[in-house]
Amino acid sequence: MRARSAFEYAIVRVVPHVEREEFVNAGVILYCEDRALLIARIELDEARLLAIAPDVDLELVTSHLDAIARVCEGRASSGPIGHLPIRERWRYLVAPKSTILQTSPPHAGMSDAPEEVLERLIARVVRSPRASTQSPPPTEPS
User: Per residue in 69-84, pLDDT tens?
Assistant: First the structure.
């Protein structure tokens, strides 16, 4: 059995009009120092985003979301930030911002499988509930 490790996570939010403070959760970033993990899982629901901001530039938003994953992976295409140590990249990604992409405050936890926690978080805070998991609406008597 693997030892439990402390981890932190933050929810990635798309805030199309910062002044309105409306947002759509678009992903989760998870950092586990013990395991040298910095992982971003992004799943943008474009329909939900367009529902609150029909004028949003989806290509721009997608480009910025992709950059988060590149920074987490430390890819050369992420620029100078991608070359920083993992902890510094984490701090950069979760620093408060007033831009179209923001993160929630960091939250902490313990797990022997942080990658599995990431999947549960995505299911809970990013994905829309599926119609198949909801009860059908009641039918009216004939």
Answer: 999 999 888 889 999 9
Q: What are the strands, taking DSSP E only, across 4-67? A: 5-14, 24-32, 37-42
Cβ neighbors of 44 (< 8 A, separation 6 or more) are 14, 24, 26, 27, 61, 62, 65
| Alpha-carbon span 80 to 76, nearest angstrom | 8
Question: Rg for the chain (alpha carbons), in Å?
Answer: 17
Phi-psi region of 69 (alpha: psi -120 to 50; beta: other; left: phi over 0): alpha
- Alpha carbon separation from 34 to 80, 89, 107 (Å, rounded): 24, 15, 16
Strand partners, 109: 7
User: CA torsion 25→127→43→16, rounded to 10°?
Assistant: -30
Task: Mark residue 17 as left, alpha or beta (left: phi above 0; alpha: psi -120 to 50; beta: remaining).
Answer: beta
